[in-house]
Every structure is written in structure tokens, then in C-alpha cells.
Amino acid sequence: MDLCMGSKADQPINRRLMMFVPFYVQDFFNTARIVDNEGQARPLVSSEEKIVVTGLTDADHRSGGITPMQSALLLFVLVAAATIYGIRRGKTLWGLDLILFFCAGIAGCILAFLALFSQHPAVSPNYLLFVFHPLHLFCLPWMINKVRKRQKSWYMRTNCAVLTLFILLWAIIPQRIDLAVLPLALCLLVRSASNLILTLKKR
Q1: Are 6 and 126 in contact (CB under 8 A)?
Q2: How distant, in Å, are the alpha carbons of 71, 116, 125, 147 from that of 76?
Q3: Among 38, 68, 80, 144, which residue is least crowded by beta carbons within 10 Å?
Q4: Burial level of 102, CB count in 10 A (0-12/13-18/19+)?
Q5: Cα gap 177→195, rounded to integer Å
Q6: Angle 94-117/181-202 helices, nearest 10 degrees?
Q7: Are residues 8 and 124 in contact, defined by beta-carbon separation less than 8 angstroms?
Q8: In the predicted model, is pLDDT for residue 1 greater than 80?
Q9: 105 and 137 Cβ atoms separated by less than 8 Å
């Protein structure tokens, strides 16, 4: 869910925008009063009832398993290790690129759809589109073809530059981005840099 939230989610909101937040709506409804023609006031909500009672507290919903950050770090370690192996052996490991960029492209399509078409005020602009964007998916066949042949891929080079700038400018991006995104961005950066290194070694 954090990935879908854009930079506006970090800005102060007014009463109108509070209507998109369920617990604010509940508070406003509970304090609202209706005044009739005789000047008599009555509450808008006379009573509350939970439709589904789980009996669980907030602490009970906390997962004791692996966190998103741990998952992202594990993925980065595996990708980095595979990339080092591929560079040393002169292998492109294009299958790894196919999986990573396909997943990043799917995520980018979702983020782009929300940013462009959603009426929710907090999903656009989303600076994560510099990392996960639809071009990963649309340019995938041409990019993989270049990688397989160990040819220079301008897409990979451009992606390498964009991701490098994104990481370097992380601190000043006007959006609170979860740190778990950093290892994911590094995965794509490492794979983009791998194509550049293998191309230079081929010469």
C-alpha cells in the first residue's frame, strides 16, 4: 500500500481531504448534529455497531514473520551475488533480467494507472515511477534481445543513470519513500550496470 501513496500523502490535509480517511469520517459523523425546523438538535449517528467482531487487538495483527525490508535485502543480496557470478563467468543471466524487469513493469503499470486515473488525492504525483514504470514492461523484448546478444542496450544505460540519480537524490525527494524500496532499486541498478560491464568486457 505504501508504494501506491504519492507525495501528496505526506502533506497536511484539510477537512475535505479528511473525508477520504475512514477514522476521520467516523469522528465527524459521531460529532455531527442535525437541527430541525424547531431548533431541536439530534445526533446524526444514534448508535454504532460492529458488523464483524474479531476480538483481536492491533497488536494481534502484527506479523512475526519476515518484514518487507528483510525481503528486499535478501533479494538484493541474491541479485548482487548472481550478477557478480555472471560478470566473472561472462554470462548475461538474461532470465534474471526478464523476471526483475517484468515485475517492475507490472508494478509500474499499477502505479501509473493510479497516478493518472485514480480520483484519490494521495496517489499522484508518485516519485516511485522513476523506479517502477511501464517502460520496463513495454521495452522488455528489445532490452532482453540486446542483453542476450551482449550488445549495448541504451535502455539499460538510461535506466542505470535514472536509478543512480534517484538514489543520490533520495534525501531531497518530496515524498516519504519506504526504505525497502532502496534495495529493490539497487537490484534494477545492478542489473542495468551488469549489461554495461559485460559490453565493455566484450570489447
Answers
A1: yes
A2: 9, 30, 27, 20
A3: 38
A4: middle
A5: 27
A6: 130
A7: yes
A8: no
A9: yes
